Amino acid sequence: MKLNRTLSIGGGIVLATSLYSAWKSATLPDQMPMHFNARGEVDRYGSKMEALLFCPILMAVLLAVFVLIPRMLPEGKKIDPFQKAWDTVVITVMGFMACVQFMILNPGMLGTGTGQVRFMMAAMSILFIILGNMMGKTERNYVMGIRTPWTLESDEVWHRTHRLGGQLMVGAGVVCLPLALLGVNLLVLIAIIMVSSLYPVWYSYVLYKKLYPGEKS
């Protein structure tokens, strides 16, 4: 996917989210729930303006960063070999943020705070499934992936770590999606996601020491 097309799709998502927020503005109360604890209870309220603007502004900033990073990389460090994976990540993150904004602006539609937490975790599970599918398509680089000192030092460690990491992310997403919809405790879902995210870091260290026993790390 070309950069201009990615920018157009990502920008379209940002614009659609902004227009939806403007459309909802007249019906929103002055105070909106902005954060929930593990039990689905509101633990922070914000102003209507915060609810309307936070996600669209953050999305615009993220999109700008995503577009600028590939252009700022020096020759030899470009992401051209995995540009499609990068583009998919950009669009997926924009879509996820749009879901977050929908959740914020529709507290009543999703029921109680527990309903919003379920929606959020279900969206995050889908995000993990898509990102996990992209992990194995990346090459060694400094902007995307599991960038530990050991993966950045070796192509083999990079590829094997990202194959495992991608499988764990997809697996975590597949497991968490139905659990989120069933209302399983948020801490259980977070634990699954944390393990799938952190284990590959440890694995990259162990694998590097196994492949290069004489090297310092």
Task: State the main characteristics.
mainly alpha, two-stranded antiparallel sheet, 6% strand, 217 residues, 6 helices, 68% helix
Describe the structure.
By secondary structure, the chain is mostly helical. It has one domain. It contains six helices and two strands. Strands 1-2 form a two-stranded antiparallel sheet. Strand 1 and strand 2 form a beta hairpin. Helix 3 runs antiparallel to helix 4 and helix 4 runs antiparallel to helix 5. The longest helix is centred in the C-terminal third of the chain and has 28 residues. The radius of gyration is 19 Å and the shape is globular. It starts with a helix and ends in a 6-residue tail after the last helix. The mean pLDDT is 89.
